[in-house]
Specification:
The chain is an alpha+beta fold. 39% of the residues lie in helices and 17% in strands. A hairpin with a 2-residue loop joins strand 14 and strand 15.
Amino acid sequence: MASLLDIIPQGERFAHHRPWPRFLVTVEGWCYAAAEIARGRATLSGLWGDNSGGPMVHMAMLDDTTGEIAVISLPCPAGRFPSVGALHPPAIRLERAIHSLYGFEPAGAPDPRPWLDLGFWDVRFPLGANTATRTDQAPYAFLPVEGEGLHQIPVGPVHAGIIEPGHFRFTANGETIARLEERLGYVHKGIESLMTGATIEKAARLAARTSGDSTVAYGIAFAHAVETALCIEAPPRARYLRALMAELERLANNLGDIGAICNDASFSLMHAHCGILREEVLRAAEACFGHRLMMDRVVPGGVAGDLPPQGPDLIRSLVQQIRLRFPPLVELYDNTASLQDRTAGTGIVSAEFARQFGAAGPIGRASGRGFDARKMPGYPPYDQLDFAIPVLTAGDVNARVWIRIREVEQSLNLIEQILVRLPDGPIANSLDNAAAAGEGLGLAEGFRGDVLVWVKLDGLRVARCHLRDPSWFQWPLLEAAIEGNIVADFPLCNKSFNCSYSGHDL
């Protein structure tokens, strides 16, 4: 396969975009790149709008073989751009979001319906150059369904228990699901609008709140983007502390997900025990970093606080306790036939879909796609640590559980290595002595997969920032995975995905 850069027709290269290149392309170049992505020559990593320097759309592409990333940009002064989704379905919802926020029209798009704009906003196209006054919006048109014996089951957006809102429209024949259609956007917070003009400090706090269960991952991705834009680096000790927090976050979430999946298969004992272990992780995080979720602990330039003197011993004790108590739970899961009957063969995501949608995290790895941003393109200190990326091919709920089990084991190993190798020294570098501001692209591996952040700075303020959660490419796969399963297995499939509503809805 040719290098990613080789497939992009030559265009003007932006001198201050780091660490990967950004090119200005023509309509022909944009369409050519979209076609190459559709052929599998690269993976779509992001697609977003921009009005900070005139109407423009940007597309990030990843070369899966080298980890090389490139961003191409297309001016759209008339408010139109050629649809990528017409050739590559993973782009469809991203284009619908661009239209909801900016009013830019993806010409030739197969699905022109609004996405984030549910008709509740005071204005239309709030990030566009000229916001439009809100007018009556036609009711949302769900996809038509035809066939004998079919009926529809609407679920949400309000759900039982403490859960974020999202609407799911099932079409079923008896108990068998023929189609699932999602409607999201109910947790839209306007984060990218709030970012515009914000100081780096304020923007970092906003980034950390995009999806609270991934606050460390978002903090790291945002910090990477700002630091590359400013040509600075975090001190070595700060990098190791970031990795320590990231693995604690991954550990807590994977333990919680394993228990919650089992609970949705009516095996509450696993849920209880995994919940206890997750609580132990959160308590250790609070004792060591001052916050159960470690929110606002990662900052551009480094970290906000150091480990207390007792911190390493607390974390070693935590690791020892999990190593003692987790293996019997794994054995219990593996040897409970009634549980395996629910998870094995349920909610299968094919390897083809995982590759096409660039699925990351447990969803991608359970279906054969072993991408992990810590390995490729990679970032410190993971290049100095020894760990494996578990990959399975069954693509079902059971495989996604086992990926999380192996991730727990890898996180425990990584935490021990980090504590052994943790260097002395400062924990942050000042941004005040940074070089002239530019643009930066940051990537970090969260427990759901890779988080991408693109930032354009104006001095030490944000001119434009885009945050892309891995859930953007995972929610559509849930629709595919549930087809042919029974309605009662939807909660199980949904929990095995555990996509973020908040991170998706921005």
